[in-house]
Amino acid sequence: HLPPDLLAAVTKGAEPYPIPPGKKYQYGTAGFRMKAAGISNAGLDHVIYTVGLIAAARSKKRNATIGVMITASHNPADDNGVKLVDPMGDMLEQSWEGLATTLANTPNDKLAKAYEELVNDTLVDEIRQLHERPAKVVFARDTRASGPYLITALKAALDAVKVEYTDYGLLTTPQLHYIVRCVNTLNSPYAFGEPTEKGYYEKMATAFKTVMHGRAIQGPLTVDCANGVGAPKLKELIKYLPSGKEGGIDIKVVNDDVVRPEALNLDCGADYVKTKQRSPPSSAAQPGDRCCSLDGDADRVVYYYTDESKTFHLLDGDRIATLGAVFLADMTRVAGIDQKLKIGIVQTAYANGAATEYVEKVLKLPVTITPTGVKHLHHAAARYDIGVYFEANGHGTVLFSDNAIKVIKEAVPKSPGQKHALESLRACIDLINQAVGDAISDLLFAEVVLAHKSWTPENWRNTYIDLPNRLVAVAVHDRSIFKATDAERRLESPKGAQEDIDRCCQMYVKGRAFARASGTEDVVRVYAEAHSKTEAEKLASQVAEVIKKYGSA
Ligand code: G16
Questions:
Q1: CATH 3.10.20.740 fits domain 4-170
Q2: Best substitution site from 372, 472, 479 to test ligand 1's pocket, by max atoms within 8 Å of Cβ?
Q3: Domain 317-435 architecture
Q4: Architecture of domain 469-551
Q5: CA-to-CA distance for 180 and 194, rounded, in angstroms?
Q6: Phi/psi of residue 367, each to 5°?
Q7: Is-cis flag, bond preceding 494, omega within 30?
Q8: How far is the CA of 323 from the centre of ligand 1 (A)?
Q9: pTM of the model
């Protein structure tokens, strides 16, 4: 049994954070997310309190520091949420998502008992003293107005169970993942870096300078920061980077208004650009200018430009993946180590059919398809020596296996070309945030590759031509009735819905569509592609009608 005073503290600490009547919580694609407007009565505070307890138990279990990030990322400013970060900076292990859901749905009067059971059950195989094992949690938040209030709920839980914690204030989600990994690998052979924000900037800037050696980036990059935490953090990073004149990069930061929290993700940001397939209306970019957009917590990035005829062209996560894979495959070939390393790409059903075909047929690299959610892609990518994973929405990174790192670090160059390739690969290992998809790290990586290849955005786009596609969000009575299978490419329920979708697809050349319940918003998402824009749009609206029909109460 846990000490009675600790259990009493859990009950007392929870008092200000009851579950609103009728509220049900579910751990989704990236943690818990919901409306946080009206703040204290929205019920997210209760979830955050229970997440504090979960983080404590998880930290004891793993004997390591656990991270908690308060953010709702791409969601509207009124929403908020929470993601848990495991010791290596990856997402919470899936078997614990159920535990988190159960605890979140536990009313205050049963919380202390539930926490005790959780600790007992999860530490069942361990020695008794583990109850006393110190737990450590680090946390941060994005710029949402509800953040500071939710942090008080988190601290209340951590104080109740006597957990040591460090509040990192405002960070991007990937910065917190970086810090968690650094803390847990400090002084080990796998040391990831200095566990501070400064350490993050220095690691990235040093790697960037190395890999940029002898290359030049053409023209400035405009970065739309979605009026989120990415803006102040990117501005900070810029101080560590050489400018264009110094052989580095000129970055123009736009949509950096973090003073008005309601501006977050509003008519700007990666989700807006990807979904609407247009530049933010505020954009002052000229034809040919290289632009990219981050999301609210800077874990996603998509590129775009307009051409001379003002036509908008999106270079999304699929493109960043292929760009990165081409570069890494080239570099391993030049370095003479390609035979020792298996490179692969991980995508989801949202990947454009043309991107998948390009990877398999032109790059001749294997593709793995997983359900939505970086937690799924990350694990699949870890099965390759160099695993490049990106969701089409711009969320992704590259993972280097221990074997790949060893081969790259130990290879002895036989020519100046090999030396340069090996140095570039070594720097990429540091430039790319392997803990998790990181918009800031990803954009530097993309810039480096474009510079190495001397490619304009147009050259990049010409590698393959996307099939026209359309994404729509459909509001339904209860999205939980839509259950997907086959990496979310088919619906297994409600009965008959998939057959209707199949019938729609058959009417179009290269028609492909699917529908799945979002795990971050209260909608069903529909994706459709076809050989022309009009047909992709028609297919999307027909499938949306199917969803509305089956989803009406
Ligand atoms: C989160 C996840 C992503 C996912 C996205 C949308 O992104 O981390 O993996 O693609 O939600 O998920 P869904 O379609 O289930 O709503 P973010 O950037 O919001 O954290």
A1: no
A2: 372
A3: 3-Layer(aba) Sandwich (3.40)
A4: 2-Layer Sandwich (3.30)
A5: 10
A6: -120, 135
A7: yes
A8: 22
A9: 0.95
